[in-house]
Structure formats: C-alpha cells, structure tokens
Amino acid sequence: MTAAYDAVVIGAGAAGMMAAGVAAQRGLRVALVDHATHLAEKIRISGGGRCNFTNIGTTPANFLSRNPDFCRSALRAYTPRDFIELIESHGVRWHEKHRGQLFCDDSSESIIEVLRRECDAGGVHWRMPCAVQAVTIEDGVYVLDTAQGRLRARQLVLATGGMAIPQMGATDFSLRVARGFGLRIVEPRPALVPLVFDAEQWRPFAALAGVALEVGMRAVPTGTDPAAGAPGPGAGRHHRRHAAPDFVEDLLFTHRGLSGPAVLQISSHWRPGEAIVVDLSPHEPMADYLLRQKAGGRQLLSTVLAQAWPRRLAESWLAQSGGLDALRVADASDRDLRALAGRIHDWRLWPTGTSGYKKAEAMSGGVDTDELDQRSMQARRRPGLYIVGEAVDVTGWLGGYNFQWAWASGMACGRALLPA
Ligand code: FDA
Predict the structure, then answer these.
(1) How many CB atoms lie within 10 A of CB 306?
(2) b/e string for 286-300 if b means 16 or more Cβ within 10 A?
(3) In 3-state terms, what secondary structure has residue 33?
(4) Confidence check: pLDDT of 400 > 60
(5) Exposed, middle or buried, 93 (CB in 10 Å: 0-12/13-18/19+)?
(6) What lines the ligand 1 site, CB under 6 Å?
C-alpha cells in the first residue's frame, strides 16, 4: 500500500518534530517516521531529565562548523525567546540555572509534550515505531520503503540526528541517505565527550576518580604555539581551529581520564595527537598566592594547595610534579614557586582518545553546510531534500545550544516546505 504526502520527515526528535509540526500547521500533509518505540528519548534524558532546552545567550559563536556563518540566518529567524514563548503558551515553567542555560521546572517530558501537541494540532501522521528500509527517488518524488508500507512525497526531511548514544537507537541514517544522494559529508566525530588517556600515563591520577574542581581549559590546535596559543601555519584550514575558546567550567577526574563540563566543551575542539591545557587556578594568580603563603609559615606545599584544591588532588599533582608534595613552601625558592605556578596555570596533557559515541552528548561534523541553503535547510543540488538538526555540520557548545539549533533549523525547514 502506498501513502502520499507533501512531506515525509524521518526522525521524530527535536528538529524533526519542530519541522513536521510547523509544516503541518501551515496546511501540508506531513508524515513523521521514527524507528524508536519511545518518542524523543534524547530530549527525555537531556539535562539530567530536566532538558536544558536553550541558552538565552545563543549566538553563532557558540557553534562549530566548517562554515561558522551558516547557522546565522536560522538562529536569527527563531530565537531562544521564540521557543520560550512557544513552551509558555503550553504552560511549561522554566528557570535559568547558570550562564544562560534554561531548564524545565518539572521534567523534559513537558518539552516532548509541547512538540507532540504542536504536531497533533497540524494533523501530522505519526508512523512509529517504523523502520525505513530504503529511500529512492522516482520522477522527482521521494519513495520510502518502510515497515508500514511505501510512502511517497515530493519533499523529504532527514532529521535523524547524530550518532551519540547508539545504545538508544542513534544512527548515521541521515548521513548515509545524504551521501547516497551525492551530498558531501564533513567527517563525523563524537563531541561533548570525556577524554581518555593511556592507562600507564593515567595511573597516578586514576585514584582521583570523583574529584572535581573549577578549571580553565583550552585545546591547542596543531600548528599553533602552545604557550602563546597564537595561530600557526596550520590554523584555519578546518573548523576555525585557531578560534578554539577558553572555557572556565568544572573538571571531573575519572578512572580513565577527564570529564565534566570543561572537558566536554574542549573535546569538540580537540583532535587526536593534540594537547589540552588545564589552568588549575583560573581565578587566582598562583605565583602571588604561593609567595604570600611562603611569607606566612612553614606549611607543606600540599597543605597550601589543599586550601585551593581538593586535598587528594593537591597531593597527587605535586607528587607527579617532581615529588613536591613533601616540600615546605618556606624551603622553596621564589623562582621555583613561580615555575610551579606556571605549571599550575598551564598543565599540559595529551589525551589518547575520547570515550566515543557511547558517552558523547553530540556528534560534530555531518552534512556539509555548503550543500544546504541556510534559510530553508534544503539541499542546493537536490530539490525537495532537507536536512535539519544534529545531522548538519553545526555543533553547539554544551549548555542548551544544540537544542536551540534543532528548534531553529527545524523551524526554518518547516516554514520553507511547500504545499502541493
Ligand atoms: P534527535 O536525536 O533529537 O532525534 C533523532 C530521531 O531520529 C530520534 O527520535 C531517533 O529515534 C530517530 N532515528 C535515528 N535513526 C533513525 C533511523 N535509522 N530511522 C528512523 N528514525 C531514526 N542538548 C542541549 O541543547 N541541551 C541538553 O541538555 C542536552 N543534553 C543531552 C544529553 C545527552 C545524554 C545527549 C546524548 C544529548 C544531549 N543534548 C543536549 C544534545 C541534543 O539531545 C541533540 O543535539 C538533539 O536532540 C538533536 O536533535 P535532532 O532532532 O537532530 O536529533
């Protein structure tokens, strides 16, 4: 049996539901297909169950992409304020946690419910769970062979997101279909993901698992001078590598390496073989602090640092830094204390990899933005084919930016889809 639609959206997640609901409310006949049994699992688990649904300070600078300007138009046309207005019209209450990150007061279910109701208001045809076996094109019409029969539409929206958390059903479906239609793909990688180290190298720190503190963190792209952080000859050829920002966020030690918001942020900028630089005292100049402490008494350096850091970290870190844990601050020369302070502000580490898609919160890379029209998300060389959300090479920082991209790109597409 064949069913015909104005548009078929594959992926009933954040971007797909937004696109489907908007288009359907404009009068289009829309089908929304998803292979999952439960609706929008990533929204459900996001933000610890409260969904960090946007960031009030969203700007294009909060995204990585081969073309950093691509996201500009969609983000301007649908802002965090617009999304707040939408959820408030459904009675959802929210609060700001910190740094512009907005969360639901109750649970992320309420965001799913808003999107579900918006789709129902337009009469979207739900087809889930429903696997898509093949996508072909016949005389300019997209033909989908699915577990619920054949679907035909002049317009197809790929909204299956990224590959993070495959154990929850994430796939590279959109990338495969886009590639099949001749679109270029920017190599996908896990993003917002813990970093891991060689087991031997990490052994001295493995016992610190669970220790957390606020740090400054930056990635050192290949071809840049690590000490100065200045762009070198290799900079600028990839994802605006020279512009990797510094983040001041919490760092968490794990058995295999580092996690926590600071590391998740920097992981999107890091590439294998590169160093990361941790500033273990982002707010206080350590040289001043240590020299003040030297004047004040005969404490162990580890005791002095334990006033600023968790004690376990102070002891392990100093032990690794030339056995300084047993040294009294009064016995160290000013020069040595200044050198130590330099290392505290500039702790350089070489991760061997990431924890992979299983632990990632996002995927970077995806359908090359050069292939898409920035106002509609339509493929330039494939009329009627649209790609939205995380499947596009636009990756947000941690903090609600990825959902804002999903809403904005879904909205751009939903407004652009054409009625019959
Ligand atoms: P999304 O993943 O939402 O939806 C894709 C849909 O496609 C899914 O329903 C899936 O079942 C379906 N699908 C996949 N393959 C398919 C196939 N082959 N056939 C049919 N259907 C298929 N972001 C943020 O801004 N704030 C936050 O708090 C968080 N928190 C967070 C926590 C965790 C643990 C993760 C993993 C991710 C986040 N994120 C986040 C990121 C955010 O969830 C993500 O960027 C968006 O959900 C992306 O929206 P999309 O609509 O593109 O994909």
Answers:
(1) 17
(2) bbebbbebbeeeebb
(3) strand
(4) yes
(5) exposed
(6) 10-16, 34-36, 40, 42, 45-47, 51-52, 132, 159-161, 164-165, 169-171, 173, 361-362, 389-391, 400-403, 406
- pLDDT value of residue 242: 44
Identity of residue 226: P
Q: DSSP states of 319-385 as a string?
A: HHTTSGGG-BGGGS-HHHHHHHHHHHH-EEE---EE--TTT-SEEEEEE-GGGB-TTT-BBTTSTTE
State both tokens at 281.
């005292």
Distance CA 335, CA 188 (A): 46
CA-17 nearest atom, ligand 1: 51
Provide φ and ψ at 20, rounded to 5°: -65, -45
213 Cα distance to chain centroid: 21
Measured distance CA(159)–CA(163) in Å, rounded: 12
Q: Give the pLDDT confidence score for residue 224 in this predicted structure.
A: 59
| Rounded CA separation 170/208 (Å) | 32
Phi-psi region of 315 (alpha: psi -120 to 50; beta: other; left: phi over 0): alpha
What is the C-alpha separation between 369 and 386, in angstroms, rounded? 12
Q: How far apart are CA 160 and CA 168, in angstroms?
A: 12
d(CA 224, CA 262): 21
Confidence of residue 324 (pLDDT cuts 50, 70, 90): confident
Q: Which two tokens stand for residue 26?
A: 């404009």
Q: Give the model confidence (pLDDT) of 19-40 as tens digits.
A: 999 999 999 999 999 999 999 9
Mind listing the domains of the chain with CATH numbers? 2-189+362-416 (3.50.50.60), 195-354 (2.40.30.10)
Pocket test for ligand 1, best of 10, 42, 51, 165 (most atoms within 8 A of CB): 42
Kindly report whether the global pTM for this prediction surpasses the value 0.90: yes
Phi-psi domain of 40 (left: phi exceeds 0; alpha: psi -120 through 50; beta: other): left
